[in-house]
Amino acid sequence: MIKIGNCEIGQHAKPFIIAEMSGNHNQSLERALHLVELAAEAGVDALKLQTYTPDTITLDVHTGEFFISNEENLWKGKSLYNLYKEAYTPWEWHKAIFDRAKELGLIAFSSPFDETAVDFLETLNVPAYKIASFENVSIPLIRRVAKTGKPIIISTGMATVAELDEAIQTIRKEGNNQIVLLKCTSTYPATPENSNLATIPHMRELFNTEIGLSDHTMGVGVSIAAVSLGATVIEKHFTTSRAHGGVDSAFSMEPHELKMLVEETERAWLSIGKVNYGPTEAEIPSLVGRRSLYISVDMEAGEILTVENVRDVRPGLGLPTKYYELVLGRAIKQDVKKGTPLSWELLL
């Protein structure tokens, strides 16, 4: 069993929903704190930040491979350094954001992007860590996080089976087995047809870990499907409004959508239940709505049952309809009224 804060993670528990703030605070602490409040109102379990600075994640170079020129890239026309300068969450904000989250009943943690970020987050006593998809091959970082002994959530975007195995073995060698893998497609936004959710049960069996989804698609449909396949954690970016802009706003949920995600993933989880045949306890009253055999005209004792005086109709309080041919030609013991349920006790 994995436990983060007061929440258990596993198929026995409702999905653990993480609201990812990322850079949607638009470099405003006031907006960041408002996002915390919106996440709490939506009913999520956890709030997640990203902990880095432009200098801990890239170089102050603005040409060549450090410049995003791909026309299909959401962040085209920016250098990596300037993008991360716009998107990062100032480290001096973390405590205020985490404190506000805790006041509102949210679990708060972060994705560190280098070892100095881990050291900093340890001073804030975070209850868990997230490894982003682009860092799932950063073995020194993963090892440093594993040494904290805290639960580790790893996005699996782009990672091969061998790369994931190396990350998992690195964690387990440190005596830490609190691992959640998130199926992830590292495109922004992602598309349903590129999500490959069939990997979720396969990943659970292959790595013997809890499995969830880091979902960059629009809407809630993919997340709901993931829960039906066994996902126990769902992570989604969120914002106040996509119209307000921001580095990640184009693929982020708005507050009403985040609330829908919480509600609908729990419904999906509740619906899984267990293997069951026959009426459930809740269905037992509905059995009366089945067809059964009824006397369809007034009859006198000794009369013979025929297609003219016995029918299979609703409600279901008479003999099952499978006995229809068997009772035809039999005589009845007593006078009966139309609408009497047929029973063996009425037959000679």
UniProtKB/TrEMBL annotation:
GO biological process: carbohydrate biosynthetic process
Domain of life, source organism: Bacteria
PROSITE patterns for this protein: AFP_LIKE (PS50844)
One Pfam family from the record: NeuB
Location of the AFP-like domain: 292-348
Matching CDD domains: SAF_NeuB_like
GO molecular function, one term: N-acylneuraminate-9-phosphate synthase activity
Protein name stated in the entry: Spore coat polysaccharide biosynthesis protein spsE
Organism: Solibacillus isronensis B3W22
